[in-house]
Amino acid sequence: MQSVPHLTTAQIGPMLMVESHLQEHLADIESWFRNQWRSIKEPFYASVDIRNAGFKIAPVDTNLFPAGFNNLNPAFEALCIQAVQLAIERMNTRIDRILIIPENHTRNLFYMESLGVLKEIIEKAGFEVRLGSMFPDLTEPKEATLESGRSLLLEPLLKEGNRIGVDGFIPELVILNNDLSSGRPALLEGLDQRLTPPLNMGWSNRLKSMHFGQYKMVAEEFAKHIDLDPWLIDPLFRNCGEIDFMKREGETCLSRNVTALLENIQKKYDEYSIKSEPYVMVKADAGTYGMGIMTVKSPDEISVLNRKQRTRMATVKEGQKVTKVLIQEGVYTHETWGEPPAVAEPVVYLIGHSVVGGFYRVHSARGVNENLNSPGMRFEPLAFEDCCISPEKSLSPDAHPNRFYAYGVIARLAMLAAAREMAA
Amino acid sequence: MQSVPHLTTAQIGPMLMVESHLQEHLADIESWFRNQWRSIKEPFYASVDIRNAGFKIAPVDTNLFPAGFNNLNPAFEALCIQAVQLAIERMNTRIDRILIIPENHTRNLFYMESLGVLKEIIEKAGFEVRLGSMFPDLTEPKEATLESGRSLLLEPLLKEGNRIGVDGFIPELVILNNDLSSGRPALLEGLDQRLTPPLNMGWSNRLKSMHFGQYKMVAEEFAKHIDLDPWLIDPLFRNCGEIDFMKREGETCLSRNVTALLENIQKKYDEYSIKSEPYVMVKADAGTYGMGIMTVKSPDEISVLNRKQRTRMATVKEGQKVTKVLIQEGVYTHETWGEPPAVAEPVVYLIGHSVVGGFYRVHSARGVNENLNSPGMRFEPLAFEDCCISPEKSLSPDAHPNRFYAYGVIARLAMLAAAREMAA
Question: What is the pTM of this model?
């Protein structure tokens, strides 16, 4: 079996334009990024969901509390370790002890394996690492033995004055691996310690539309620098505030924006002679885990949503109500893997501003325009065989190093957008 | 065939003490290094020759103008690229164009391959790179095609005002890959551009005794921090000024120091119940390329040197006369590879303060106490299968990741000594 998904599309259009353009502008691109990172601090890590339509490569979600570290290629462990060292060197302060605050769903064994790998990478980078849990039922340390043979000690989070830690351990740095879907915990307010990503980047504060607003500006600046149409790396979007799916409030706004967005996409498709049918994704503006998401090809679909569909859209993780939605250009996934072909969606990982690889979500039962990160949806992870760090001049634009380099560039643009969100 | 040399010794002594001690103190060690690098700038790169006697691991040479990049494991290319990006980020200034000044011996195809790999790594890190040669006979650009298929363009170095470059290319950073054995070139004096390593680190200025003096202090501070006898990581040494091998001047000083050093080594051997016979290396204090080096087991050997041996000691690279010598504790090499066993000497590479792997010099015709880097001596390079970045807690001290981690630590101590030489 091939080890990298196949990029296949029947489109007549500017195929591989992004890859070949990026491949040719390596020095300009890296120079631009270097300059950006000289003046802005990035969050500690991120994973970026990317879609490659052949004519267009764009991020569709940027997760600042990434899980899935267990899906990365073990061959790039040293790269991860070096990236952790660089990210912490960039914090410009003495850090030896690090506390990770994990999610509360400790029964999710996939999550626990990811946490185990994350802890191991940071330990191997030469730090003392402990896990401090906010889970209210955890009143004493609890050892979990994982399928991989890893053993993890979860300890109850303690607060002493303005500093948090676990028993006998007050860290200089706290890394959040909990997306704060259920709100900003009082325990974490007003800390004297460095906390990354900061509280206001949790899903209780953050809106996808804020991120994609920043991304739009980042993509425009970047595209101008290398003389590229920004649309080729940026999904169009609009947003609606004050939607109530259950009460059917805000539907007019939604329909109007869906119509406008579909028209704008069609214009770009016409410009590039792309024969696909435009579609949009309607997503909860706050929240993650692929909940509260639907694919829409016509505004008429909004008014005929049935009760089950409305319920599915109305709440996201931890029962948070959806009141704002993001309407985002749908980007077709034209990467497939295996036989019969299964749709494959790349996820790129960054530690600090360094790309450290990624993996594909491979799901055979889904279509090219559906979301592959849905609740209950099982995917097969396929680790990238390349770390996305540099293109290979001598090879074709679709050669794996070049495709992965393009993914690394897009992911770094998303990270830069997140850094600007954080600074804003 | 095994892919990593075998560490074998008949010694009764504190075997693997260094490896196991370093393995246990990962967090302390990395914390110590982090703190050091926060307050001092390192040269751009280095290769460090290391010897592992089983009871002791020590650097025997630190080269600040390394060749041999073609001997590194291609699997760690991404690590090298990331290390270049970090090293240049640490320079805290805008750098996009880089000029490399190579050695003049362009007919050495091994050297040219190394130069090709070095250039490629820096290009892939996102910089524009050109090669500016000081070779007087090079009056116009000359393309060289290498066995690997690489093609290298050597261009004559030009100076405009206080800036150097090649035709149409004025770089922000100049990387010296020429050890300046024949002196400080006037062309490179008083530049407005950043030059790394700086001129005074060339062999025309630098003395091995200065380096090992700094290394001794670094090793003492480090060893104190992790509670280790510094002798286990530091070769003892003494030096003599004003030696003339041909005129037999300075022999008394040499004999006296050889005697004293052999006695000091014997004391340490007795302390650790090591049954080996002490020996010392007598080396030209300035100079490289393994010229002007001899193994001495008794001061009597000095007075009976024949004419040929004296001539061999009297001059080093580019005909420079040897007037000062370093007398260094000989460290046995107890790593062997293959059948019949061939002696293997590790060489560790750093870019900035990051270790990026290394290789072994394997030579079957040499003994355990001889120098493996001699003129005319051909060795087989054996790339490290590990990048030396982190130990593996769960494995034995002699497991490959732990042995390589120890090498990485020793190499970083040598780099720190070089950084202090540079600052002094």
Answer: 0.91
Specify the residue for token string 């003395």. B207
Domains parsed from chain A with CATH numbers? 73-205 (3.40.50.11280), 236-330 (3.30.1490)
What pLDDT digit, counting tens, does each position of B272-319 carry?
999 899 999 988 887 655 567 888 999 888 878 777 777 777 776 666
Tokens standing for A268?
Answer: 């770009």
Decide if B422 contacts B196 (C-beta within 8 A).
no
Which of the residues in chain B have pLDDT under 50? 1, 12, 375-376
User: Counting one residue from A and one from B, how many pairs have CB atoms under 8 Å apart?
Assistant: 97
Q: How close does chain B come to A32, measured CA to CA in Å?
A: 10
Partner residue facing B86 (CB), from A86, A92, A389: A86
Selected for mutation to probe chain A from B79, B117, B150 (highest A CB count within 10 Å) is B79
For B36, the closest chain A residue by CA position comes to A94
- The answer to whether B29 contacts chain A (CB < 8 Å) is yes
Residues of chain A with Cβ-Cβ distance to B92 below 8 Å are 38
A171 vs B contacts (CB less than 8 Å)? none
What residues of chain A score a pLDDT lower than 50?
A: 1, 12, 375-376
- Alpha carbon distance B209, B239 (integer Å): 7
The pLDDT score that the predictor gives to residue B318 is: 63
pLDDT at A95: 97
3-state secondary structure (DSSP) of residue B313:
helix
Q: Is A415 on the interface with B (CB under 8 A)?
A: no
How crowded is residue B270: how many other Cβ atoms within 10 Å of its Cβ?
10
Q: Are B149 and B111 in contact, with CB atoms under 8 Å apart?
A: no
Query: How far is residue B359's CA from residue B117's CA, in Å, rounded to a whole number?
Result: 15
For residue A44, the one-letter residue type is: F
Residue B335, Cβ density class (10 Å: 0-12 exposed, 13-18 middle, ≥19 buried): buried
